[in-house]
Amino acid sequence: MSATLANDLPAARRTGNAANVALWVLQVAAAAMLAMAGFAKLAGAPEMIAMFDVIGIGQWFRYATGSLEVLGAILLLVPALAGVGALLLAGVMLGAVATHLFVIGGSPVMPLVLLAVTALIAFARRERTLRLLGR
In the prediction, which pLDDT does 117 show? Predict the structure, then answer.
């Protein structure tokens, strides 16, 4: 019966549903990755402490970054706030890419991938974000 219902839907609606499901998969995957990274920073994982020592701003920056990552990950899982969370995380990832390129070295591939994913989510969820702003 569900196959019959799916065939009765207009093609645009089926495509929209598939895109929404794919977007949710990206949101959950990004939320999981960024929550793990954020919790590692907040828990004081030795490699995070060492990395933020190299950055040179202080360990308070590790706590701030970890908190933003965990907050953004939670927001990605709240339908009305997913766009806001994605914008927040895109900003954090932009900073991570710049930090890798100009301060600590190493490969910026993972932050670049997360930047692209969060930017895509922010763009796709822009209508919800604009509604929050009353536009």
Answer: 98
